[in-house]
Amino acid sequence: MHHAVSSQDGNLFIESTSLSSIASQFGTPCYVYSKAAISNNFLAYQSALADKEHLICYAVKANSNIAVLQTLVELGAGFDIVSIGELERVLRAGGNPAKVVFSGVAKTASEMQRALELGIHCFNVESEAELELLNSTAASCDAIAAVSLRVNPDVDAQTHPYISTGLKENKFGIDINLAAKVYQRAAQMAHINVVGVDCHIGSQLVDIAPFVAALERLLALVDELAGLGIALQHIDIGGGLGVRYDNEQPPTPQSYMSAILPLLTDRSETLVLEPGRSITANAGVMLTQVQYLKSNGEKNFAIVDAAMNDMIRPALYQAWMDIQPISAGNSDNAVAESAVAKSAVYDVVGPVCETGDFLAKDRSLAISAGDYLCLMSAGAYGFVMSSNYNSRPRAPEVMVDGNQVYLVRRRETIEDLLSGESLLPAAVR
Ligand code: LLP
Fold this sequence. Notes:
This protein is of the alpha/beta class. The chain folds into two domains: 5-32 and 281-418, Lyase, Ornithine Decarboxylase, Chain A, domain 1 (Beta Barrel), CATH 2.40.37; 35-278, Alanine racemase (TIM Barrel, Alpha-Beta Barrel). The protein has helices spanning 19-26, 35-49, 66-74, 84-92, 109-118, 128-140, 179-188, 209-227, 253-260, 277-280, 313-317, 414-418; strands at residues 5-8, 11-14, 17-18, 30-34, 54-59, 78-81, 100-102, 122-125, 145-152, 174-175, 192-198, 234-236, 270-273, 284-296, 299-304, 323-325, 342-349, 358-367, 372-375, 397-401, 404-409.
């Protein structure tokens, strides 16, 4: 996977733009993405699929900034969405609804209506109850809904339990052993057109074997359905390819596809993929500034200006993310008393009033107050999971394209924070 950050004499760059210049222009915390890295990661899938009929539906949830989506639209991407909000983002970015698949366990009737009106590629249906609501909603719109059933293949993705989705105990999908019955019902519904099958077994997979096991189970189902007279047009194997945060060795899209494609020889179904993290994670970083250094006896803390509300992955999944100073020994002394960077082992923590508010633990860093740090691999599940907890305005997002830098989401203001709220009317006596 293409990594956005390079180092020249200890100074970090994204493409040909230095991170110091971005930190001083836009302030911190700040998300920074590389257009080239996003593009290259997408193109790696495209070239790995070579002449196999395919549709790569980028999972919008991973990073939904409309400039990121626009970058992918320009390369011909489709999109995997889980809400109407994400669908409207795809439209705003110029995306084609005919290349959109709609996932999620809890689609509402009004979401279904909007998606039907726009003519999306298909609904990834996750239960019989949802299938019924979709059929009746389509009937009321005088439409036919294209449907793929998301099956749960009961495969262990061997990843963090919170991001594992393909086990029987998870809320996702229809038990693969019951799927043929549901397909037969779907085939009889007047406003449903059965077009495919899909699964998604989890995220941050670093091994190919679970993907292969899941596909084998899907193919057995496809054959069973063919025997029942139900022919599918596409097979969607979801997203989930992992990235390197630390020393993981995830397969490249090339090696992933070379394990998958042989199973599909002599099959005419289009292969659909829903990659998220592997497109954007290593195409982005989050910049933050050290506010204070502090020691409590044995422990050293680097207190920075980014918090769990900006990046929740370490707090929520015990995720390990690399963090490095953005320049070799030049500290901006706005906050610092002493410019001498002492190397020590730090917990990098934020301003939020929670013990779980950390970005990194036990890291060897030579830093002073005022220094800027770069949290690596933050382009996926970063900004999108941010919140206003502790009434903290959300960070800006910046897109680098060579030596050009574009602000693609401005920093929120205090006014933004308060804009939806109102006081109660004055008490009536
Ligand atoms: N398709 C479906 C139906 C999904 O639920 C997901 C992610 C994807 C595709 C994309 O998976 P990816 O290629 O990004 O692994 N917030 C967590 C990750 C949650 C993933 C949820 N589903 C994290 O920060 O690790």
